[in-house]
Each structure stands twice: as structure tokens, then as C-alpha cells.
Amino acid sequence: WAYTSGDTMALDLDYIPMPDNVVKLIQNSWKSNIKGADGKAIY
């Protein structure tokens, strides 16, 4: 949720939203590193 909807909340709380390129890096890392018991990507 934070990666898709958190920018507005971050700004409301006087935080800086996570840069889009960082979000992409995290999501790509999850796709290749987080797998279920069957070995398939969960994310």
C-alpha cells in the first residue's frame, strides 16, 4: 500500500515521499527474491 498510495500521506505528515526509482528497485527485488513454497514469485 505504501508504495502505491503512501505519497499523499507522507506529504501530509511532512515527510518526503519515496522516489519512484527506489520503489521500482524494491518491487523488482521482491519479484526476483521473494518466492512461495512452490518457488514462484509471490509479488
Topology of this protein?
Layout: H1 2-12, H2 20-33
Description:
The chain is mainly alpha-helical and 43 residues long. The longest helix is centred in the middle third of the chain and has 14 residues, at 20-33. The protein has a domain at 18-43. It has 2 helices and no strands. It is elongated, with a radius of gyration of 13 Å.
Q: What's the rounded overall pLDDT mean?
A: 91
Q: Quick one: overall form?
A: elongated
Q: How many individual helices?
A: 2
C-alpha Rg, in Å? 13 Å
| Structural class label | mainly alpha
- Could you estimate the helical fraction of the residues in percent? 55-70%
Strand content: under 5%
Main beta sheet strand tally, sense and closure: none
Runs in which pLDDT lies below 50 for 5 or more consecutive residues are none
Q: What is the ordering of alpha helices and beta strands? A: HH
The separation of the N and C termini measures 13 Å
Report the count of strand segments. 0
